[in-house]
Design goal:
5-stranded parallel sheet, Rossmann fold, 56% helix, alpha/beta
């Protein structure tokens, strides 16, 4: 089974994904890291050289390469579900889980390493940040909401990976087509 973790940048897809993969004894893949390894360039370099459109093409190719993985936890980029038919593609080939931390938590997390996020370039004041986050989240909501599962992260101290493992097991046992495909 493929598990695709989606959500806004800073939602904890990579952090949680590594822990969830360890709990399930699945390999973990970070789509951005895969793209960087494949191209030999960082995500900011790709954005600078090819623009967002060029990056999104590489991202789609990398996503489609995950089809070869029988079992995996895959942390997708924040924009991955929002381009091409990526969300439908992921829903057809695995379980999609939307990680949803509160806006304030996203802001705090993204403040730690804004230089690693090309879309955050040029944001200076807290007001600019919050306006940007609210605007992007609003635009991405129609895509994120197509996820098969949604996990609202209300407690920073919670063991998200453990909770997701339980949610996934329950989802798979309740879903006839999913239960049949994992039997």
């Amino acid at each position: 089974m493929r598990i695709f973790l989606i959500g806004f940048m800073g939602s904890g897809k990579s952090y949680t994904g590594k822990r969830l993969a360890a709990r399930l004894q699945y390999p973990f893949y970070d789509l951005d890291t895969f793209i960087e390894q494949k191209t030999g360039r960082s995500i900011p370099e790709i954005f600078a050289e090819a623009g967002e459109e060029g990056f999104r093409q590489l991202e789609r190719q990398a996503l489609h390469e995950t089809e070869a993985l029988e079992r995996a936890v895959i942390a997708c980029g924040g924009g991955t579900p929002c381009f091409f038919d990526n969300m439908q593609w992921m829903n057809a080939r695995g379980v999609t889980v939307w990680l949803r931390p509160p806006l304030g938590v996203l802001y705090q997390r993204l403040q730690r390493k804004p230089h690693k996020r090309p879309l955050l370039a040029g944001l200076t004041s807290e007001q600019n940040w919050m306006s940007f986050l609210e605007d992007k989240l609003t635009k991405r909501l129609p895509f994120y909401s197509q996820a098969q599962l949604s996990y609202e992260q209300t407690d920073e101290a919670a063991d998200t990976a453990s909770e997701l493992e339980n949610i996934l097991r329950s989802f798979l046992s309740d879903s006839p087509e999913n239960a049949a495909s994992t039997a």
